[in-house]
Each structure stands twice: as C-alpha cells, then as structure tokens.
Design brief:
Blueprint lengths: L4 E6 L2 E6 L5 H14 L1 H4 L2 E8 L5 H13 L3 E7 L6 H8 L11 E5 L7 E4 L2 E5 L7 E4 L3 E7 L2 E4 L8 E7 L3 E4 L2 E3 L15 E6 L2 E6 L2 H5 L4
Parallel strand pairs: 2-3, 3-4, 5-7, 6-8, 7-9, 8-10, 9-11, 10-12
Antiparallel strand pairs: 1-2, 11-14, 12-13, 14-15
Helix pairs in contact: 1-3
Length: 222
C-alpha cells in the first residue's frame, strides 16, 4: 500500500509529501498518525513546514499544521512553498525571537485575512499578508503583520497592556491594546514614511502609534 505521507528534511524545516488522491479526511488522520509515531525522533524543535504532492486550500494547510503540532512536540513556525527563495528569510526570522524559548510560542498565518474573517490566537500572532477591510485579528499576545493592516486588530486581548501591534503599514479603523482603543488612523499625514514599519503600543496611560526606530523599540517592555 502506498504511503500517504512522506517526510523529508531540509535545513531548519521539513518537507511533507502528500498523496494526491486520497480524501482529505483520510490524509489528515494519516499525517497525524505519521507524526505521532515519529514524535520521539523529531523531539522538540521549531521548524518551517513545506507541503507538496497535492494542491491544498489555506484552511487545509492550517489543519495539517495543527495536526503536526497536536501529534508531536514540534512547533510549526510557518508554512512555505517548495523551492521558494524566501524560505530562508522566514527561517532566519523565526530563529531571532528574544525571550524564554521554552515559554514562547507564536502562531503564523500565511496569506491575507479577508473581509468578515476573524483570526484569534492565545499566543503571539504573525500574519504573512494583509489584514483586509472588515477582517479582525485578535491575540492574547503581540500581533505582527507582514503587510498592511486595513481591518481591526486587538493585541493583549486578555488584558496584557505590554502587548503591541506591528505592521508594514497602518490603515485600520481600530486597534486595541488590552482595553485601550485607538481609531485615528484615517487621518492623513499621521506617518512620515510609507516604507518604515509602524507600531502601536501602550505606555504610561496612553496609546502610541509610531514609526519603528531605536527610540520606540526602547519604550517597549519585551
């Protein structure tokens, strides 16, 4: 019988080769079983995952990534395509977090968040794409958007006022840090540059929306 799931290593990541013909629910179970049986071999690691062998929808990719995390001690940093030159950039970015590595977990979401979609996470949330108008992202920790935030973002959703929101560009209706709300982003001329990443954070009783520079980084409680 053909193996529905095969795993190959690449630097700092795994390539998961999927059977193109079996139903997705059978594939989902087979992948969970494969990683459960291989859990001791892989141990605890933070890895990039690449899926190949069949075309997957974004929701299917997320389900398979969750199945890997649920059936092993691996942390999936992000999902990347095959032979993509950007893979190494994602891998390097994922390895440069600061803090207690045992306690730190981040959730990656690949692709744009569309209107009416709500994405929630109880860890830091990193989005590889835009958050479109009408979409909402919520995190108990920080939110980092490698794209433009047009929709709504709420960081520190469980009351953590030290959380922050970062985006390559900020054009949202509303951003919240814990219970503190800012909604002045429609105002023109708020930022000097469209090319410098922006950050929203709470400090000394006030929300700040600033371009990222050494001074704003020093103000964060990381």
């Amino acid at each position: 019988m053909k193996n529905p799931v095969m795993i190959k290593n690449f630097p700092n990541g795994l390539s998961v080769i999927l059977d193109p013909d079996i139903p997705f629910d059978e594939l989902y179970l087979a992948l969970g079983r494969k990683f459960r049986e291989s859990s001791k071999f892989f141990g605890k690691a933070k890895l990039v995952i690449s899926f190949s062998g069949r075309v997957l929808m974004e929701e299917e990719e997320r389900l398979l990534a969750d199945a890997i995390a649920d059936n092993s001690e691996l942390t999936v940093l992000c999902i990347v395509g095959n032979d993509d030159e950007k893979n190494q950039q994602y891998i390097k970015a994922g390895s440069r977090f600061v803090g207690d590595q045992e306690k730190m977990l981040s959730r990656f979401y690949k692709g744009p968040i569309r209107a009416s979609e709500v994405i929630e996470s109880d860890t830091d949330l990193i989005i590889l794409g835009d958050v479109n108008p009408g979409a909402e992202v919520i995190s108990s920790g920080n939110i980092i958007i490698l794209g433009t935030l047009y929709g709504t973002a709420r960081a520190g959703a469980e009351g953590n006022e030290a959380s922050f929101v970062v985006a390559l560009d900020l054009r949202p209706v509303k951003i919240s840090i814990a219970d503190h709300v800012m909604n002045i982003f429609a105002k023109r001329g708020l930022f000097k540059s469209k090319t410098i990443p922006k950050i929203v954070f709470y400090r000394d009783g006030e929300l700040y929306a600033e371009e990222i520079n050494p001074d704003t980084i020093d103000m964060l409680s990381i």
